[in-house]
Amino acid sequence: MKQIVLALFLFAFAAPAWAAPADSTCTTVILVRHAEKNPHPAGGDAGLNTQGLVRARELARTLEGAGVSAVYASFYGRARMTAAPLAEAIGDSVRVYDPNHLDALAARVRAEGRGKTVVIVGHGDTIGPTIEALTGQALGKVEPAPYDGMWVLTLRNGGEFTLVRLRYGAKAD
Q1: Does the CA dihedral 134-139-141-145 come out positive or negative?
Q2: According to the model, what pLDDT value does residue 2 have?
Q3: pLDDT in tens, 144-170
Q4: Strand residue runs (E) in the chain
Q5: What is the pTM for the complete model shown?
Q6: How many domains does the chain have?
Q7: Residue 62 located in a structural domain
Q8: Domain that includes residue 33, residue range
Q9: What is the CATH number of the domain that holds 30?
């Protein structure tokens, strides 16, 4: 009888058969460009326009069940504003990085995000170089990232990786 009760207890509280165990050898990095921005002078930072604010909320909604543990954004306001709703949804703050030092970001993500899922909010011209810094592989000519682009990068031990390109939210103009 004790064996039956123990078996029922284990069955009731064990992970379901369809649930995959956490894999600490894989790190998932989801990269997006900051959302649509207000017009601003060259070198300025005018934040997000209405469309961008909606896209930032859509990013949080899209990734709410993805197990994101950390959100990184460049120090520009438009990137931090894009990342903020997601960071709030996971109960964390935005982790700021310098987009001029992507190798440092890659090292930080590898160290802090090992075996986890993290999001990096970058810029149209930094998504490709960030992927290159994380993988050590040159991607060749990379077009500027669109506002609705999402790249899912899975890093494995031994330098293996997979990269999937998706779209989220409303189609970008």
Answers
A1: negative
A2: 40
A3: 899 999 999 999 988 899 999 999 999
A4: 26-33, 68-74, 94-97, 117-122, 149-156, 161-167
A5: 0.84
A6: 1
A7: yes
A8: 20-167
A9: 3.40.50.1240
